[in-house]
Write a structure and sequence with these properties.
The protein has seven helices and six strands; from the N terminus they run βααβααβααβββα. It has a single domain, classed as 3-Layer(aba) Sandwich (Rossmann fold), CATH 3.40.50.
Length: 155
């Protein structure tokens, strides 16, 4: 019997925003499906992602501060939250200088790498970009990335 390959998965803000129902119906359903199928113990939420989610929910989605807080805390109850470190910020600055990546996107990627994730689910970063063992995977791409196929249980 082969053991299920355990890959750490970090989640970017845009995936959570869709899962919260903000955006087109197809992506919202896809985000909810992927997040529901991930092994919860293998999922990392960089704390910055939750802060960005709160901002999107209060500004763009016009939810109250309490509603946004409740949504953020609900995600934190399901998945592991990991803080940014000085080392991660330094790496984010390197990603900005070397790859022209926005610093806050780089920080999410760096936190994923610090916590030995193999996948960063993101629609905003370059699909397939790999840095320090973390591959950016767009969960809404028409063809599923092989790493995402490995981590999602078959139905």
């Amino acid at each position: 019997m082969t053991e299920l390959l355990r890959l750490g998965v970090a989640v970017d803000t845009n995936v959570l925003v869709y899962a919260e129902g903000e955006g087109d119906a197809e992506r919202c359903m896809a985000a909810r499906d992927v997040l529901a199928r991930l092994p919860t113990g293998d999922v990392v939420l960089p704390s910055q992602v939750l802060g960005e989610l709160h901002r999107v929910l209060t500004r763009r989605a016009r939810r109250s501060a309490q509603e946004a807080r409740d949504a953020v805390l609900a995600w934190a109850d399901v998945f592991r939250v990991r803080d940014s470190t000085w080392v991660a910020l330094q790496a984010a600055m390197d990603l900005h200088a070397d790859h022209q990546m926005q610093i806050w996107d780089g920080l999410v990627l760096a936190v994923a790498a610090e916590h030995r994730c193999r996948i960063l689910l993101s629609e905003d970063l370059q699909h397939g970009f790999t840095w320090r063992g973390v591959s950016v995977v767009n969960p809404f791409a028409p063809n599923r990335h092989p790493l995402l196929e490995q981590v999602l249980p078959t139905r």
